[in-house]
Amino acid sequence: MGAEYFTEEHQxxxxxxxxxxxxxxxxxxxxxEEEESFPRELYRKAGEAGYxxxxxxxxxxxxxxxxxxxxxxxEELVRSGSLGLVASLGSHNIxxxxxxxxxxxxxxxKYLPPVLSGEAIAALxxxxxxAGSDVAAIGTRAVRQGDFYRVNGSKTFITSGCRADYLTAxxxxxxxxxxxxxLLLIESATPGYQVTKKIKKMGWHASDTAEIAFTDCLxxxxxxxxxxxxxxxxxxxxxxxxxxxxxxxxxxAAQLALEISxxxxxRREAFGRPLAGFQVIRHKLADMATVTEVAREFNYxxxxxxxxxxxxxxxxxxxxxxxxxACERVVSEAVQIHGGYGYCREYxxxxxxxxxxxxxxxxxxxxxxxxxISRLIIP
Amino acid sequence: xxxxxxxxxxxxVDHFKEFCxxxxxxxxxxxxxxxxxxxxxxxxxxLSGLGRQGYFHCLLEESLxxxxxxxEHLAWACGATFLAAAASGVAFGYPLKRxxxxxxxxxxxxxxxxxxxxxxxxxxxxxxxxxxxxLGTKAQKKGTGFLxxxxxxxxxxxxxxxxxxxxxxxxxxxxxxxxxxFFVIDRSAPGxxxxxxxxxxxxxxxxTAPVALNEVFVTEEAVxxxxxxxxxxxxxxxxxxxxxxxxxxxxxxxxxxxxxATRQAKTRLAFGKPIGLFEGVGAKLAVMFTLLDLGRxxxxxxxxCRENGEENAPxxxxxxxxxxxxxxxxxxxxxxxxxxxxxYLKGHxxxxxxxxxxxxxxAYGTSEMLRAAIARDILKxxxxx
Lengths: 379, 385
Fold this sequence. Notes:
Chain A is of the alpha+beta class. Chain A has 13 helices and 10 strands. Chain B has 385 residues and is of the alpha+beta class. Chain B is built from 13 helices and 9 strands. Chain B has a 4-stranded antiparallel β-sheet, covered by helices on one side. In chain B, strands 1-4-5 form a 3-stranded mixed β-sheet.
């Protein structure tokens, strides 16, 4: 599968992550889902193995930029069966790219190494209760006072937000609209920074999601990422990698649901033959395999174009929509094939069904993706 | 066909809807969230309240159309309560009322109708879901009674039920058509043990558990209707009733989704206007409305045909459940999409409704089994050439 995209190095990483997932995650993942958290230690272990540095410059403790290394890591992590764990362990991959791309050398030296080694946790804070898809409506204010910004406001739906040490936050430094938005790196230890709620969700249970409030947080001016008022651009540029990652999670989850269903259909008997002996089930599996493979191959293609430095806004949006919808269809059919058991907690497809539902909402809803695509294809 | 209700019935439906809104709906969220033992307490409150409202009396005595009408309102308020009530009043109540002996009705129907007693149907086993041929539970003749042994699974209401309607082989050699028999067994029967409740994706308030039967002795009086070998036919009739009940469940869940989505579309602002004014969101509402209304008409039609013993009634019951069940999943999906991330949060009704809706596609006949059944009927009925 996708052999042309992966070198021997990629295969070595795949084997290494697969072992890591088998040894460090799978034996505990059901409990972590139950407890709605996983040990902070896992970040350190993943950091030590070099996984968290994938995609970041070596001078800051990274493993070098290589999009397909990231794809491999995500695909293998999904095989843990907990998409929430994938999201939280990888939350730095939405928090750090703006810093890597736009931040000063000093800022990068200070914040990248501890996160990439797994000592510190990074999260991205864009969404607010009244600013979701409409990013330009952000209301958190950052007012310049000498060498500091005084920050007031709140954020919600922040993945890894309950225990993040650093938050890449979108704040309003200027007037209304997108031109007034800036990105600020805020340490959670800053007085006035408060996690106001651990949000409970339909799925992604192993991942913590926070509501965060800022009350007169004083953030040093040097923590500004990029130029003042250029935050919207930084946010939008960041979305491309996040959307590709979500698309990869989607095809990975679909692949996992497909494999589990194939196994169940071969084993489970009804009316004297295995489920796989029924044409309706066989064709279902054929459809599941088809959309999964198309999604995966298109994702690889888009990743390759991205790696080549091409402009891919349209393709990434298409990839996200296609893969997330394919995934939802596959996990729904996986539950169907399992019948009543697919509705019970003990069966992994039950979790995949709940976990998948957020993929077509997070990082830009299906509808917003369609807005993006339509603007680009209609001259 | 006339689905128009008289004034008196309309009043009663309105009254029942108000009861569901005031008494049942506030418990929908706790029923989804608290641990199983507490869920049972909430559920019992709901069931006895429904008993006082005459809901179980309606399930046992009234027309299918009335049952579906009231049922939809209950499902709108709380899907889990609806399912638990249906598991008692329909899955247990219908075969009791339709096939039970005078003695059995006298013994169970009164307490069932008042909501004081709860029943359940124990049919499914680990190796026997849609395929009853895989059943392993056996009833062996012992003196004037039977010894029943086997493992039932996914029994809705088992943790709180007073009575279990258990399907078992009385003569495997006779095959499905005359080898299966239903037994009504009291919870207190020695050898009957209810296992730990299983965690389900949705409808969590309708607590579900496995039931083990280890040489449970029952007298001949426990045989439903007094004649052995009738189980298969009795189950078929019962499932047909349950298909219409599940249609009402799907419609109730769908209506709740449409209401929530409409509220969100009118109040949530993005890009300077309520999101309902975006064509894409408006179109979603239109689809939800259309699916619901089509489903409601089909369900009423299927209920009417069953009530009147029409030949196509079994196919229609299947297609009503198939259509409304798949529509419920689609409607819940659209409702959640309109809510964005907020719809994914615990405590938001749409989050629960999305999980609840998937039940309609897998329980009491998966969509796949329903399609197969409809196809069988069509192939039998229509001549070619």
